[in-house]
Every structure is written in C-alpha cells, then in structure tokens.
Amino acid sequence: MKPGERSKLLRNLRQESRRFRLLVVVIGFFLVTLTFIVVTKPEAILFADVGKKPNSDEATSSIVIEERTSVQRLDEIPRVGNPGVDASARDNNEGTEVKGENEDNSPTKIQRNIAIQTKEEERIQLRNTIGPDQFGNNNGNEGSEEKSEDKKEEVKHKVTLPTVSNYTINDSIDTKPDETTSTEVVALQTNEQTEPTLQAKSSTKHLCDFTNFRANVCDMEGEIVIHPNSSSIFFKEPAGSTRDEQWKIRPYPRKGDDFCLSHTSEITVKSTQTPPQCTQYHDVPGIIFSVTGYTGNLFHDFTDVMVPLFTTANQFNGEVKFLISDMMIWWVRKYHRVLEALSNYPVIDFKNDNEVHCFKHVIVGLHAYMEFTIDSKLAPKNYSMVDFNAFMRRAYGLKRDSVTVLGEQPSKKPRLLIISRKRTRTLLNLNEIVEMAKDIGYEVVVNEADVSSRISQMAEVVNSCDVMMGVHGAGLTNCVFLPRNGTLIQIVPWGALDWISRIDFGDPSTQMGLHYMHYSISVEESSLLEEYPRDHEVFRNPVAFHKNGFDFVKKTFMDNQNVRLDVKRFRSVLLEALDHLTP
C-alpha cells in the first residue's frame, strides 16, 4: 500500500472512531434519561397517551396520580395522606419511653389519590426543608411560582424536622374542600389516616378536613352517634342524602409520624342513615382526642396536647365535654387543672365506656400548627400564644400577670430562675454562674424540671421569676408560666443547633409576648473538647454531622455534651435581660 493511501485510511478510521464514540455518548445519555424518567415519574410512561386520563383500573396502588379533571376542581377534592417516616427520636431526658411497635394496618384498598398544594402550605414546606438535612437558616422563602391548572405537581416526600421532638411531617398536602361544590372521589387505599371513601356525590362539606400538614380534624354538626366499643362515630344523614363517606383518623397531632401514631387508637368516622340507638344524650359539644403518642415528655405534653386542646376547646367557655381515647389516668391527674379550666364536665374514657353517646356537635382531633405555637390566622377566634400564656396563668391561679419593673419596689431584686439538668447538657459551673448573677443584682433560684415535678409547684416558682434561663431541653417549656414581658434565655449547645432551638422555644416564647435571648456556646464552653481534638470535624464543620440524621445528631451533640459557661461572656447577656425590666 502506498504511503499516501495508508495516511488517508488512518484519517478515515479516526473519523469513524470519533463518530462511533459520539454515537455511544448519545445512546448512553438517552438510556440514562429514560431510566431517570421511569424511576422518578413512572406515570409519564404508563399514561403517555395524549388526552387519556388514567382510570382506577389502570393505575397501580403504588402510584399517586395528581391531575385536574373537567368535572371537578382539585381544590374541592380531599386526598389520602401517605404514611410518615418511621422511628421518631425524642428527648428522653425529660420524658418517658414509647412502648410497642407499629400496629397492623387495615386491609389495603386500591386507591386513586388526588391532591394539590396551597401557597401557604408551600411556605411551611419551604421553611421546614431549609439547610443541609433540614438544619440551618430558618429564613424560608414565602411561596413560590403560581401553579397553572395544567401543571403537574411533583411527587411529594416526607420531611423530618430535627426538633427536640423530631416530629415527622407528612407534607402530602391537600386543600380544603369547598363546602358547596359536588365532588366525587374514588377511594382506594387505607393508610393510618385515610381520606374519605365517597361512593356518591355530596352537596355539603366533607365530615373531615385532612388539609392541615400536622393534624387531621373532623368537625361535625348534626346528629352524631359515638359508639366507643366499636371505635366508631356515625354522622346521621338526612333522608334522601346520597353522601357516603368513611374516614380513618388517629386523634393525636403528629400527622405522618407513623411510629408515634402506632400507639394511638384509630377511630372510624362515617356517614349513615341508620346509626346505632343512643343511650345517652348530650346538649354540649364533644371533643375526642388522645393522650398517648409522646406524652410524658414535658415539651410534648404542651406542643402535642395542651396548646392544641386550648386552641380547639377554649371557644366553648367550658361548655364542652372531653372524650379521651387511650386514656392515661396519671396524665389526666397531672394536668387536671388545665382540663377543668377548659371543661365544666368530667372526662369520658372513650375506650372503656359502654354508653352510646349522642351529640349535636363533635370534633375529632385537635387543631395544631407548628411546634408549640398557634397560627392566629387559622385558629378559632384567632387565638394566639399570648392568649395561651394568659390561660395557663389563670388555670393555675398564678399571682403575677406581668414582671416587676426595676425600681417599682426598691427592696425587691429581680428574680432569675436557672433550669438545672443533671443527666445531659448539664451546667458544669453552676455555682460560678449563680455567684456572677448575684453580683449583678439578681436573686437566683435553681430548679430542676423533670417528669416527676408537680406542675402546680413548678408553675408557681416560674411565675415568681422575671428571667428564666437554661440549656436547650424540655425544661424550657415551663416558660408558659412566666409573667408577661418576662425573659427566656436559651443556651444552645455546640453543634449547629440554633435553628432547632429557635423553632422549639425561640419563636413560641416571642409569640407569648416574652423577651427571648439566644446564647450559642463557643467551642471552649463545650465538654466535647474533652472527647475530640480541637481540629476535629465536630468543631470544624458540625453541620456535616447532620447528614447522618437526627438520632446521630442527638447522640453526639445533645446526649453527650455538657456546658461550662464563660461567665465573663455570659455576664453581658444577664445585664441585657435586666434592661428588659426597666420602664
């Protein structure tokens, strides 16, 4: 072969080789894209026919279909919530253990789920997902782009908030059904809290509202029959009504947290024209709720029950009856003063009652919003945390409604309460802190708040003080007893826990009308220096540990860390708290 021909052949081979490599790259990219679409949006493949709407026979039970039909508006249709994430971590230093495992779910039905997410719920979702692994800055962006009618929603996933409770939110959010528009929903799958089974069209509002991201609530007015032995509540439909609804609800406000709700009995709410015969009639409304879940931990007693119960029941001015499912006598006795302040009647043990009760108004579940807070825009009568704070003072007969202004009583020093912890997040130099506080003019009270504390005694101690301080933990929940304009100082352990701390106690205390002060300790104030070298990742990049989940963060930065405050640095914080007491 001639030299010129050989050179030409080599050039041709190189060109063919480049073309082949390019073809391989294009095919590879296509296969990767196709695989991604199949894995993330299977409905795009299964129902790709233009203009074709999948029916319930075509859809599998594992696919959530979200679409807009020509007959119904999505904002008129409720949606079945997805089960939440298992295993919720708790701050066990102040609480009791959760017993048992998840209960068996009811038989599964094939189901078509239709949902849409409102702008307000998007705002909440954004707030809860900011930062690496839900940690970091809490300045969430409010809202996002408006969704067009034909735009498909993304498949929604659950969000785990790494709070002191680590509650898990099912953010499969739907919108409130229209009270006047006819709807028809094909129901298919029974979850822990399922949306209604509607066999026919209804011209009235639905019996239950599953639109809140944290709590499902059934608020019914009419002829309601409660049959505790069967854990069923019947709404009597008038003659000629075609409504046929059935809802499954666990009346504890931890929606999506399957581990928590597995310890709460499921109640069935259904419409019927032939309810059981009543044996006892009531002329006041009834509220059904559970006190299992995470109760026994002071923080959860308030964020899961006390605040939601106040929000739901206070509107009735005592003329309401409580029916408690999963009764815990010790808990009812501990908080009997709160229950008696909200209801003029004895509590009914829902599970062990043999009567068939008839009410004209029944609420199943409690209105709940973010942790330890009340959303005044959504709450009945626009209740706020200021109202709750005042209610708690009244319920326990506390003497002080507001703090004592400096100079108002010259002989009286401002009182500082230090919440002391013994097992974790302990103040190692407590005596030094006490002496420093006394030097700048405080009368100091030290108290350890734990699960065995008598709530009435602790309430009196807290109410007698003007300033309360402590390391992040359930004991800070006692700030509900502080007088108006009091100050809460939260000491935040090392570990990028600022956002969690603000959500749990910073925002709630501010909403109560208290002054809130946030003190994040430095590396030198942490006992972790005794376990890790100064250049360890724990100190250089604590946020990186959050990717391992809240259990890991809790074990590393909460359960195994104590605090030795720099009294010189902390002195300025206590001086600033004194300024809050000046006229």
From TrEMBL:
<keyword id="KW-0472">Membrane</keyword>
<dbReference type="Pfam" id="PF04577">
    <property type="entry name" value="Glyco_transf_61"/>
</dbReference>
<protein>
    <submittedName>
        <fullName>Glycosyltransferase family 61 protein</fullName>
    </submittedName>
</protein>
<feature type="compositionally biased region" description="Basic and acidic residues">
    <location>
        <begin position="144"/>
        <end position="156"/>
    </location>
</feature>
<feature type="compositionally biased region" description="Basic and acidic residues">
    <location>
        <begin position="88"/>
        <end position="102"/>
    </location>
</feature>
<feature type="region of interest" description="Disordered">
    <location>
        <begin position="127"/>
        <end position="156"/>
    </location>
</feature>
<dbReference type="GO" id="GO:0000139">
    <property type="term" value="C:Golgi membrane"/>
</dbReference>
<keyword id="KW-0325">Glycoprotein</keyword>
<keyword id="KW-1133">Transmembrane helix</keyword>
<dbReference type="InterPro" id="IPR007657">
    <property type="entry name" value="Glycosyltransferase_61"/>
</dbReference>
<feature type="transmembrane region" description="Helical">
    <location>
        <begin position="20"/>
        <end position="39"/>
    </location>
</feature>
<keyword id="KW-0808">Transferase</keyword>
<comment type="pathway">
    <text>Glycan metabolism.</text>
</comment>
<dbReference type="GO" id="GO:0016763">
    <property type="term" value="F:pentosyltransferase activity"/>
</dbReference>
<feature type="domain" description="Glycosyltransferase 61 catalytic">
    <location>
        <begin position="390"/>
        <end position="488"/>
    </location>
</feature>
<dbReference type="InterPro" id="IPR049625">
    <property type="entry name" value="Glyco_transf_61_cat"/>
</dbReference>
<keyword id="KW-0328">Glycosyltransferase</keyword>
<feature type="region of interest" description="Disordered">
    <location>
        <begin position="78"/>
        <end position="111"/>
    </location>
</feature>
<keyword id="KW-0812">Transmembrane</keyword>
